[in-house]
Design goal:
This protein has two domains: about 180 residues, Rossmann fold (3-Layer(aba) Sandwich); about 120 residues, TPP-binding domain (Rossmann fold, 3-Layer(aba) Sandwich), CATH 3.40.50.1220. The chain is an alpha/beta fold. It is about 30% helix and about 25% strand. The strands form four sheets. It has a seven-stranded parallel sheet, sandwiched between helices. The protein is globular. Bound molecules: flavin-adenine dinucleotide (FAD). The site of flavin-adenine dinucleotide (FAD) has 27 residues, from helix 7, helix 8, strand 16 and helix 9. Flavin-adenine dinucleotide binds next to helix 7, helix 8, strand 16 and helix 9.
């Protein structure tokens, strides 16, 4: 039997625009695997997969079916399970993005295997996979040694495994396959494009986030303006969502999304432990709060004490000038 350690990666794309999280997962996979197979479920058999090979895939399998026009967990899980039975990989690696988390949970059930979620480190040591996961709302880490039935299933926290990017000299195989799927039309129906119309907070590199200190829902326009200039996503604390000022998909924290952007700008957010649980692994945290003793300042790299309703528009103006000059 072949002793090669094989990892399967599922390509995340938005209408065939490959999402950056895919390259993070490929980057993590290639650092430990002998062989990386990327599954690209698409309604277009002629998609350009060269970036995936340059990003670390040894083989890209384009699985074609018109039902893959948009991601649904029913179609992806049905096709992936059939493929996994043929490939028999050691590990299936997915992003802990919205779609990745859903698909991972479904695959764990369908394959009856364990799942390690939201990992921030991945190692292969003497044939054993070891992952590191934040626990207790990010206050501690747990090291898990995976054992039992294969394939192991692991999701990786976005924005952690960026690595060195793509290598133009890499080569790999491309395989195309027509996929037969069960008829999901009664389940799936028509998909509306609510998700994907704006940046997903879990994948965003810059987040502008607002709390109750923004005072009123209409003041989130200040945050949206700043986000637009920075190419950022808008996020919120839980009470903002509970008040109906923002959708739940924007909530960051223990009962919301976990994010790790390059830059997290917290505006009028006190910094309760439940909020910090979702954002304290951000690379740079800027806090704007009128209370100099607000707990958010204890995790902030830069703090601005003052009224967010005045400071955010000034920042937007300043960034517009700077970025406008560069463009
Ligand atoms: C089980 C459980 C789960 C929870 N999960 C989450 C979660 O997932 N995410 C989450 O966020 N919370 C969560 N919470 C709630 C959490 O405990 C806090 O209540 C919440 O994070 C506070 O939100 P906030 O910072 O927006 O509001 P507040 O705590 O009211 O803070 C508002 C801040 O705005 C500042 N401020 C006021 N006016 C201005 C101004 N003009 N300019 C600048 N600053 C100003 C104030 O000084 C204050 O620091 C959870 C709680 C529980 C019990």
């Amino acid at each position: 039997m072949d002793n090669k350690f094989t990892i399967v990666v599922v390509v995340e794309h938005d209408q065939n625009a490959i999402k950056p999280v895919t390259f993070e997962v490929l980057n993590a996979a290639r650092t430990i695997a002998d062989s990386v197979i990327a599954y690209y479920f698409s309604d277009n058999a002629e998609v350009d997969v060269e970036p995936l090979i340059q990003g670390g895939a040894d083989e890209v399998k384009i699985c074609h079916n018109s039902d893959f026009a948009s991601y649904t967990h029913e179609t992806y899980a049905a096709a992936l399970k059939a493929e996994i039975e043929k490939t028999q990989p050691d590990l299936i690696l997915l992003s802990a993005s919205n779609n990745g988390k859903e698909l991972a949970a479904e695959m764990a059930t369908r394959l009856d295997v364990g799942l390690a979620t939201d990992c921030v480190d991945l190692q292969l040591s003497e044939g054993e996979v070891i992952v590191k996961r934040p626990v207790f709302s990010g206050k501690a880490y747990s090291l898990c040694r995976l054992s039992g039935a294969k394939p192991y299933l692991v999701t990786l926290r976005p924005n952690i495994f960026r690595g060195e990017g793509t290598a133009e000299t890499r080569t790999g195989n491309v395989v195309k396959e027509e996929i037969n799927l069960p008829d999901f039309s009664k389940i799936v129906g028509e998909l509306t494009r609510e998700v994907g119309a704006e940046l997903d907070v879990t994948e965003a590199r810059i987040i502008v986030s607002g709390g109750l200190g923004m005072q009123a829902p209409e003041n989130f326009k200040f945050l949206e303006d700043l986000a637009e200039v920075l190419g950022a996503a808008v996020a919120a604390s839980r009470p903002v969502v509970d008040n109906g000022w923002q959708e739940y998909s924007h909530q960051v924290g223990q009962t919301g999304r976990t994010v790790s952007p390059d830059l997290y700008i917290a505006c009028g957010i006190s910094g309760a432990v439940q909020h910090l649980a979702g954002m304290s692994s951000s690379r740079c945290i800027v806090a704007i709060n009128s209370d100099p003793h607000a707990p958010i300042f204890s995790v902030a790299d830069y703090g601005i004490v003052g009224d967010a309703l005045k400071i955010v528009p000034l920042l937007t103006k300043e960034f517009k000038n700077i970025l406008g000059d560069q463009g």
